[in-house]
Amino acid sequence: MSTTIPVIVRVLASSVSVAGKAGKIVRDVMSKGELGIVEKGKDDYQTEADRSAQRCIIESLSAQYPKVNIIGEEDNPDTEGDISSEWLAVDADKEILSIECPSFLKSVKEEDIVIWVDPLDGTSEYTQGFLEHVTVLIGISVNEKPVAGVIHQPYFKTLIDGEKKLGRTIWGLQEVGVGGFTAAPPPDSLVITTTRSHSNPIVEKALQVMNASQILRVGGAGYKVLQLLEGVASIYVFASPGCKKWDTCAPEAVLNAAGGKLTDILGNYYKYGASEGKPNKTGVLAAVNGELHNYALTRIPQELKDKLASNK
Ligand SMILES: Nc1ncnc2c1ncn2[C@@H]1O[C@H](COP(=O)(O)O)[C@@H](O)[C@H]1OP(=O)(O)O
Ligand SMILES: [Mg+2]
Ligand SMILES: [Mg+2]
Ligand SMILES: [Mg+2]
Q: Could you say which residues bind Mg(2+) here (predicted)?
């Protein structure tokens, strides 16, 4: 591979490839039927698919980019023994490699990059059979900001020449744009997307004040941002801690690249440096554009914002 291609573009191209591989692992674990569920905490589970997909992503990327700081959700993916070489992805997506790198990212070095990996976003939904909500998230940050990201959907169905194909990979790069799907404008009426498995009274209060025509309750931060990108919903509101940096890094990067905005419930951006705290303590507020984001921000009562801020 030519070393004249800037490292950020190579890392994104490798991430697109490895996300597809991780998605296959996610499907294989489900079709074998032994999920190996471990309860990490309240409403917080891990399966064999989370563990194996994380190993695939981290070992593949760190073999190619040893100086990049890669942080994954799962603490104890089975670290014993070598992983199957079948799982090691060393290829890079050709389409991404041909992208013209934005000038501000051309001189980024491996050691400037922090990658946040969520090997399986929407684990609750995965275990309950809501498979289309499941995504694999790889978020790439530089100087604490998410600059590129991959959202892979292992169970997305397409028909190619009459043949069913499973899985699609959406990517975004700041100042370049997005790919892997067809973007659509937001719905005419206000449609909000939110959690289906982690609600509480404050989450509900923040939804009530939005004056929405419809509230969609789906799993995963990745899937909800896809709904924004595809014109299914206009705003994503989650007024609660629970999401972590690996949940929002890739979705935020892709949404930004498409002209959207993701912050906490107070309107502040999260930082994605390696030394940042992992929890997104002050919730998630995302929208397809700045105007809708601002609408939602102004509707959330100060009292509710103060309550979330006291979690900090
Ligand atoms: N209370 C929580 N405990 C653990 N994970 C959470 C919690 N709330 C949110 N998450 C993570 O954020 C994602 C988006 O939240 P939600 O689906 O509730 O909107 C979840 O799929 C889950 O990621 P993961 O499935 O990777 O563990
Ligand atoms: Mg989890
Ligand atoms: Mg997640
Ligand atoms: Mg996860």
A: 73, 118, 120-121, 247
- Taking the C-alpha atoms of residue 220 and residue 123, their distance in angstroms, rounded to an integer, is 8
Nearest-Å Rg of the Cα atoms of the chain is: 18
What is the reported pLDDT for 82? Answer: 65
Which residues belong to the annotated binding site? Answer: 73, 118, 120-121, 247
Please report, as a single letter, which amino acid is at residue 147: V
State whether the beta carbon of 200 lies less than 6 angstroms from ligand 1: no
Q: Say which of 50, 194, 263, 282 is annotated catalytic.
A: 50
Whether residue 201 contacts residue 304, with contact meaning beta carbons closer than 8 Å, is answered with no
Atom of ligand 1 at shortest range from CA of 219: 17
What are the pLDDT digits (tens) for 84-95? 777 787 899 999
ipTM rounded to 2 decimals: 0.99
DSSP category for residue 4: T
Token pair, residue 123, equals 């684990």
214: CATH: 3.40.190.80
- pLDDT tens digit sequence for 184-197: 999 999 999 999 99
Residue 179 near ligand 1, beta carbon < 6 Å: no
pTM: predicted TM-score of the whole model, two decimal places:
0.97
H helix or E strand, kind and range, residue 227: helix 221-229
Domain of residue 66, CATH code: 3.30.540.10
Distance CA 261, CA 51 (A): 30
Structural domain boundaries, residue 226: 191-309
pLDDT at position 90: 80
Same structural domain, 151 and 212: no
